[in-house]
Amino acid sequence: MNRLAGKVAVVTGGSSGLGLAIVRRMAGEGAAVAILDRDARGEAEAEAIRGMGGKALFVQVDVTDEERISAAMQAAATQFGSGFNRIDVLVNNAGIEGENTPTDKLALAEWNRVMAVNVTAVFLCTKHAVPYLRQAGGGSVINISSIYGIVGGGDIPPYHAAKGAVRTMSKNDALLYAPERIRVNSIHPGFVFTPMVDRYVQDNGLAHDAAKAHLDALHPLGGTGTPDDIAWGAVYLASDEARWVTGAELVIDGGYTAR
Ligand SMILES: NC(=O)c1ccc[n+]([C@@H]2O[C@H](COP(=O)([O-])OP(=O)(O)OC[C@H]3O[C@@H](n4cnc5c(N)ncnc54)[C@H](O)[C@@H]3O)[C@@H](O)[C@H]2O)c1
User: Fold this and answer.
1) Which in 58, 82, 116, 198 has the greatest CB count within 10 A?
2) Nearest residue CA, atom 8 of ligand 1?
3) Are residues 124 and 97 in the same domain?
4) Where in the sequence is the domain holding 120, given as residue range(s)?
């Protein structure tokens, strides 16, 4: 119930899917949560958390917009009245899958679009959160990469490149900020049916049931995951239980990458 009591957590892409589950689990563990998303549905979620006696804030923002991100981090750091400006946890979760087009047919603009959201925004959010993590005396940055940041799936090329970049950025930032007790780790989820995966199935003209059966079979534990499977990993990395964990890859994939 109180694994994150007293902490201020910022979750990008918290209006939907994995981010939404992370927001709910972190709020349930006592964190004050700031949801940063371009999708306004996060406002209702923040209201619901407040209605249950929790602390939450929604900021509608595109994570690729540096000025707005800087302002959003300041809003999150000053909102919750803990006496001084602080952020304890940043979850870089916002992401897009992009077009499923082979490398030799892919437009540069599409490559850049995926990189902007999935890589550059992780840099921007980390850049503008670190001063507040520092003021808190340390904290936890959690970057949502993917199994596609570890192995190839033979599809969506820029997504793979982006998630691989996030994996190594996490390790390098872990080294850079370890002296300040800011821990940086990545999470590598296997397939979870969120709006992103639904979109992928639809955009590629696949039948939902056949796609689900195909993806289920790729995960040795049987079946795709749930948003909470990932959210509990994020709660652990955010909490003081993970005080000695940095530069790590937390793979939560039902065994997908064990082969
Ligand atoms: N679902 C999976 O199977 C899976 C597997 C591995 C990794 N991931 C990663 O998990 C993260 C969350 O994915 P999801 O499946 O929950 O997707 P989703 O599409 O359900 O949610 C993504 C959220 O990010 C927000 N977002 C996207 N672009 C944004 C932008 N430019 N500015 C602000 N907000 C933006 C969306 O509005 C949405 O609320 C992503 O980084 C994704 O790559 C997902």
Assistant:
1) 58
2) 146
3) yes
4) 8-190+227-250
